[in-house]
C-alpha cells in the first residue's frame, strides 16, 4: 500500500504505511530507502520546499517588522514512529539503509566462503571414497538420484542468489545517490561528495547512477570551491569544447525505470500514471543538466560569455528547470542584461499576497 501511494505521488500517506511496515521489516534496507523517498518526494511536491519563503508582517506603524517562518517539516497524522517528514529524517533513513545493506553483504560474503569450503571438503571425501572402490549397484543408483536432486536445488539456489545480488546492487546505488542528493540539499558538500564518490566506485554501476554520481560530485566540489575537480567530473561527457554526449541512452532509461517501478506497475492504470516517473531525467534532459552545471561552473569563474552559450543550450533542453533559469538570470545580470533577467524571473516565480502575509515561491 505504501508503494502504491508513493507511485501515485502521495508521500505522506506512503510514509504512514511504510512506518507501520517498518515494525516488521526494520532490518530490511529497502524499507528505509522507501521512507527516505517519501521525504524527497515531499520536497519535490513543495511540502518541504526550501525555496518557499513565508513572511508575516507584525507590529504597527514604524514598529512594523517582517517575521520569516521556518519551513521544512511536515507533520504526519496519527501516532507514527518518526512523526515528521524532513530532509534530516531522509538522511537518517538512508544511513540506516546503507548500514543494513553493508551488513547483509558482509554476511553474504562470509556465507559464500563457508559454502566454497564445504564444497571443497565434499569433493575430497568423494575422491577418497572412489579410491577405496567400495560401492554396489543399488547404492550407486541412489547416490546418482540424490546427486541429481541436489544439483537442481543447488542450481535454483544459485539463480536466487544472483537475483538477490542484482537487487542489492540496485538498492545500494539508490541509497548512495539519494544520500548525495539529500546532503546537497542540506548544504553538506563534504558528505555529499563522499556519497557520490562511493556511488562511482560501485562495481557494474548503471549508466544512470554513474551520471548522477558525476553530477552530484561536481556540484559538491563547486560548493567546496574546487572548480577544476568539478570540471573533471563534467568533462567525462564532454565532446569537444562546447558540447555534451548523452550520458545514457533511452534503452538504459527504460530499463532503469522498469527496475524501479515494476513493483507497482500492475496496480496503476494508464490514467493514474506513475508519479515517480516525473523525477527521472530522460537522456536529453540529463544532457541539459550537464550544460546547466557547466554554465554555472563557468559563471563562478567569471567566464560569463561562455556560460551564456552553455545556459542557452541547457534551456532549450530543460526549459522549465528552475535551477537552470536562476543560473541564466545570474548570467544575464553579470552581463548587464537586467531586462532579460527580469523577464526570466517573471517566468519562474509566483508572488502572491494575502492579508498579513507575503509569499514568494518558485513554481
Automatic annotation (TrEMBL):
<dbReference type="InterPro" id="IPR039740">
    <property type="entry name" value="CNOT10"/>
</dbReference>
<feature type="compositionally biased region" description="Basic and acidic residues">
    <location>
        <begin position="123"/>
        <end position="141"/>
    </location>
</feature>
<comment type="similarity">
    <text>Belongs to the CNOT10 family.</text>
</comment>
<feature type="region of interest" description="Disordered">
    <location>
        <begin position="112"/>
        <end position="141"/>
    </location>
</feature>
<dbReference type="InterPro" id="IPR011990">
    <property type="entry name" value="TPR-like_helical_dom_sf"/>
</dbReference>
<protein>
    <submittedName>
        <fullName>CCR4-NOT transcription complex subunit 10-like isoform X1</fullName>
    </submittedName>
</protein>
